[in-house]
Here is the input.
Amino acid sequence: MGRRSKAKAVVSASALSQMGVCERLVVFEYHEGKRLTLARKAAMQRGQRAHRRFASMGSVNRSRSDHCFSTRFASDLGETGVPMVGREEVLRTAHLVRRLILGCYRVALRVCRSTVRLAVLQHVAQAGLRALRRVAMRALGVSEVDRDD
Amino acid sequence: MTTEFWLPVAITAASAAAIWMIVRGVRRRFEQAVWRLPEDIQRDTLAYAEHRFGSDTRPRIVARVDRAYRSRHGLITLVELKTRRRDRVHASDIIQLSAQRLALEAETGEPVASKAFVAVQSMGGRSWRPVRLMTSVEVMALLQRREAMIIGQLAPRPPSSRELCAACAWKDRCDAAYGR
Here is the structure.
């Protein structure tokens, strides 16, 4: 009883949207709960996966904190989301590149330590990484304005 | 001109071509892997992602917004992701986005654009479909119709397409209750 009255007091946008599918379905689901076919369950799982991915892409514009030194080094503003997404979505799909990234992580710290006193080298590296970031941002459709969010 | 001259030139040209092809390939994969925003909201900032809002209506409408972008003028544009076999927008998408608009406006007081986008991920790829949203009066009328159906004051209508019935888990019950 309590469950019914609670359900009546609150309607989700997705439940209301079912009115556009079939009104009879709305009535059945309200009184007897959801009943899913196997195909529907599979479709829902596919949708949830796509949503997770979509949400992670959304965080591109907001992400400011992560642990990638190289990408942080490339930007004064701390914009690291775009290169991170590029790495996750594109580069990691290839086996060879995955190994390359792993190798890069292994030597990166040592290289950074040895070059930390060479300011010129840092500027050169930063310029190169900034150019790469611009290409990635253009490909992602993220504008410079987004970074101020 | 000797080989000593041409060999470095050829190597440089080959290297440049190889780099260009790699960059082009990576860029293409970038474009395939990510969602490029439509022109209308490309310059907007992401305001909300996977955020829940609630209206002040009775019954209360709660909505989880996939994404909402804020323009420089403060206007919010809603985006809803759908995965489907075919690249198309349904009436249910418009209802869902309209309910989201009502809830977001009520909770934040921010103006929401009457134009929204459905990001459709289908077999054919990804596309952004612009949709025109319902007014708050229309959403409330729909909500009241739903309430009336649930308490039995109104008879629910069958779906516009009979194709939906074939895949419906309630088909047997529906046929028994409403015939056909």
In short: The first helix of chain B runs from residue 3 to 33. Chain B touches chain A through 65 residues (CB under 8 Å). Chain B has two domains: 1-34, 39-157. Residues 22 and 35 of chain B are 21 Å apart (CA to CA).
